[in-house]
Design brief:
Length: about 180
């Protein structure tokens, strides 16, 4: 019966060898390495994230306290709608600048281009809230009427800049026809 003892002894040794701590660690290591290679190429569902980003962007185009609001495409300054005024009215205690600059912004509501008159509100120190700097069709300082990086309160009794308003004043013509 020695051969039977040897047979079982060998089998037991093989099992012990295969189930050693080192063997188990090696198996776990191989599983991790495999996962690291496989995971980045697995298909991820990013549709939800994209839809959320789209709806957030859309909501901001309607929010006159957000830099993305459609009339602010060429605004440079603090939004008066965050400073006690509104999108087109200066806060109490300030007065609109005598000089303005003009931008052309497309409305997402009807797809048309509107002339936007940007004015600085003057007479009180800087509001400091909702700073935006958008420059669609903005031009350098030698084209003053379409330049936004200037304190337009300079022409007023008090040159102190507080915030900026954006009034839609007309529909932009294409110049064609
Ligand atoms: N037109 C807004 C503004 C005011 C002060 C300085 C830069 C820009």
């Amino acid at each position: 019966m020695r051969w039977l003892d040897r047979y079982f002894e060998q089998g037991a040794r093989q099992i012990a060898h295969r189930s050693s701590r080192r063997g188990a660690l090696a198996t776990i290591g191989r599983a991790f390495a495999g996962a690291a290679v496989a995971l980045p190429i697995l298909p991820f569902d990013r549709v939800g994230n994209h839809a959320l980003a789209q709806s957030t962007r859309k909501a901001k185009r309607d929010d006159d306290t957000a830099c993305e609001y459609w009339r602010y495409c060429a605004v440079d300054g603090f939004l008066c709608s965050c400073c006690g005024g509104s999108v087109s009215t200066c806060p109490p205690g300030t007065e609109a600048s005598k000089v303005v600059w003009i931008g052309t912004c497309r409305s997402h509501l009807d797809g048309r281009d509107y002339l936007i008159s940007y004015a600085d509100c003057c007479g009180v120190t800087s509001c400091g809230r909702c700073l935006c700097n958008n420059n669609v069709s903005e031009r350098p300082g030698y084209r003053m009427g379409v330049h936004n990086d200037i304190n337009w309160c300079m022409g007023n009794r008090s040159a102190m800049y507080h915030c900026t308003v954006a009034a839609a004043v007309g529909i932009a013509e294409t110049g064609k026809g």
